[in-house]
């Protein structure tokens, strides 16, 4: 094999090992990795990927007698980094919980928006577990009695929080030092507005998505979706400052979002956003819309339907998507049910930017056959080489118990794993609020969920690798480091050292820098093993 100076000379750039971490991920699908198992109830976890393969987990905990909101961080080996977890809500003394939000930036900070003492707060916690914005967080002005905040954080350490206050959708910037920045609001007389999601764009620009009702009652009114991108100076950048309609509700034909449904966005990596959602009206179909950086839509108004099966035959009750920028294609998963909402199944579809439904003749590919026990909480994240990883809650009987399952779909619509689907958690109990995040390494994923043990929930997690194995893998990663399907090549070496030095993966599908999977990184041995395998040697 011919090796250019890019590969040969790069050996001189060895990076010294620091901060060794030893594997804690388990392969036991009955026990899993325990994130929190205190006395009482811990549940409703949110998760986000941090740098260096870490995972943030924000959840509820009533072990003190009232519900608090603790934050935990798992390192790349699966070990808990904070003991005890960081309590971001010391003022809270309530026996109930409300909607909270979590966002992770690219430099090691986590941002949480939550309620306490009758108002809304925001807190920033750094990678060491130190609260950055005071002991109690920052009180958001004019938020008394409000709920459902959404937060987005930026790499300069600042943040924005959005929340609904009946007909007002409020925004508040928080400077990196925790002082209040600019504040503004969108007001529509007679129409309730509720924050749904936010993602960062260039610099401190961001995109906000919200549910907009036809009346002042967001429960009883028909609801649609609106979106806007905001500049660093808090002005609307799209459509002359007028919010765009992602989905417009109407009486005829009957269209609207289901009550208490708040779709999530994903970034397209180019300062635009992709919104998977489902219609709760007549068609009951999964849909997707993509708003480019300039505010133009990829698909026609109200998005494209992701199944050609009529809503008179079956309903779609969810939607989650991953995007492949290289091919400009979307993988979207959705739960199916009969029109009586009895038996259910799980399908996945691949959609081109031209609106072509690639899989199943337009009906999608069955991941779980129709007429199975219910599935819930399906989520999709990008996998290597244009694939997608799915995770969901699977009922093992009509009313429980439940398992956490996963599958990987190749770009051509085939299943990547021999058993097609695998279980990440199989203990005979109920599970809820599952989520899955892709590690910053790119070739492994962390699922987190609430696990009901004898009437009290705790929080558990599982690592699943791109090859379908669980826990910390044995052996070396592939030498196709950037996952572009071309190897051996100089670009794999360039990308390996770029990621090793803290850079981002240019293809979005790079392996993690723990090449030899010994749980220690960054270290010289990973570099030596990488070049040994690249030269045709064996993994030590």
Topology (SSEs and partners):
Layout (H helix, E strand, L loop, with lengths): L4 H4 L24 E4 L5 E8 L5 E7 L8 E5 L11 E2 L13 E4 L5 E7 L2 E7 L12 E2 L10 E4 L5 E7 L2 E7 L5 E8 L5 E8 L5 E8 L9 E8 L13 E4 L18 E2 L5 E6 L7 E6 L12 E2 L8 E3 L3 E5 L4 E10 L5 E9 L12 E8 L2 E8 L5 E8 L6 E8 L11 E9 L1 E8 L5 E10 L2 E10 L24 H11 L23 H11 L6
Antiparallel strand pairs: 1-33, 2-3, 3-4, 4-5, 6-7, 7-8, 8-9, 10-11, 11-12, 12-13, 14-15, 15-16, 16-17, 18-19, 19-20, 20-21, 22-24, 23-24, 24-25, 25-26, 27-28, 28-29, 29-30, 31-32, 32-33
- What percentage of the residues does DSSP assign to strands (E)? 35-45%
Question: How far is it from the N-terminal to the C-terminal residue, by CA?
Answer: 20 Å
Mean pLDDT: 91
Into which percent range does the helicity of residues fall?
Answer: under 10%
Tertiary shape: globular
The helix-and-strand class reads mainly beta
Which value, in Å, is the CA radius of gyration? 23 Å
> Poorly predicted ranges (pLDDT <50, ≥5 residues)?
1-23
Number of strands: 33
Query: Largest beta sheet, briefly?
Result: 5 strands, antiparallel
User: What's the tally of helices?
Assistant: 3
């Amino acid at each position: 094999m011919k090796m250019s100076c890019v590969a040969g000379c790069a050996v001189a750039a060895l990076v010294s090992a620091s901060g060794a971490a030893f594997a804690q991920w388990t392969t036991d699908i009955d026990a899993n990795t325990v994130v929190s198992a205190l006395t009482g109830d811990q549940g409703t976890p949110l998760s986000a990927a941090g740098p260096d393969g870490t995972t943030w987990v924000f959840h509820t905990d009533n072990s003190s007698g009232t519900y608090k909101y603790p934050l935990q961080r798992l390192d790349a080996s699966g070990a808990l980094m904070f003991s005890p977890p960081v309590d971001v809500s010391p003022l809270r003394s309530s026996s109930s919980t409300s909607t909270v939000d979590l966002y992770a930036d690219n430099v090691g900070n986590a941002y949480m928006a939550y309620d306490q003492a009758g108002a809304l707060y925001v807190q920033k916690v750094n990678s060491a577990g130190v609260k950055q914005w005071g002991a109690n967080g920052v009180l958001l002005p004019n938020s008394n009695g409000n709920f459902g905040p959404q937060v987005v954080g930026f790499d300069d350490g600042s943040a924005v929080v959005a929340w609904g206050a009946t007909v007002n959708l409020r925004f508040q910037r928080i400077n990196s030092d925790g002082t209040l920045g600019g504040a503004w609001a969108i007001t529509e007389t007679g129409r309730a507005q509720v924050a749904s999601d936010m993602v960062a764009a260039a610099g401190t620009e961001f995109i906000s998505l919200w549910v907009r009702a036809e009346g002042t009652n967001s429960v009883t009114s028909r609801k649609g979706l609106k979106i806007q991108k905001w500049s660093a100076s808090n002005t609307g950048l799209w459509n002359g400052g007028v919010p765009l309609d992602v989905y417009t509700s109407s009486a005829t034909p009957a269209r609207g979002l289901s009550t208490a449904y708040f779709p999530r966005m994903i970034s397209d990596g180019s300062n635009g956003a992709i919104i998977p959602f489902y219609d709760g009206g007549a068609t009951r179909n999964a849909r997707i819309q993509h708003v480019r950086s300039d505010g133009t839509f990829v698909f026609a108004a109200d998005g494209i339907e992701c199944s050609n099966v009529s809503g008179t035959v079956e309903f779609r009750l969810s939607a989650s998507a991953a995007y492949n920028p290289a091919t400009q294609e979307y993988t979207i998963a959705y739960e199916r049910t009969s029109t009586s909402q009895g038996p259910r199944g799980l399908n996945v579809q691949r959609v081109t930017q031209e609106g072509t439904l690639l899989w199943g003749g337009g009906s999608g590919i069955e991941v779980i056959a129709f007429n199975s026990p219910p599935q819930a909480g399906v989520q999709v994240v990008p996998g290597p080489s244009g694939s997608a990883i799915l995770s969901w809650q699977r009922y093992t009987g009509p009313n429980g118990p439940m398992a956490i399952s996963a599958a990987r779909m190749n770009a051509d619509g085939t299943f990547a794993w021999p058993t097609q689907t695998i279980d990440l958690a199989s203990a005979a109990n109920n599970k809820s609020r599952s989520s899955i995040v892709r590690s910053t390494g790119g070739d492994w994923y962390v699922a987190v969920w609430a696990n009901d043990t004898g009437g009290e929930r705790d929080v558990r997690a599982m690592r699943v690798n791109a090859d379908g194995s669980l826990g910390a893998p044995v052996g070396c990663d592939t030498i196709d480091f950037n996952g572009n399907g071309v190897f051996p090549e100089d670009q794999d070496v360039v990308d390996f050292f770029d990621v090793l030095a803290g850079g981002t993966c240019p293809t979005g599908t790079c392996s993690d820098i723990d090449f030899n999977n010994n749980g220690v990184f960054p270290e010289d041995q990973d570099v030596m093993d990488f070049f040994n395998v690249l030269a045709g040697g064996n993994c030590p």
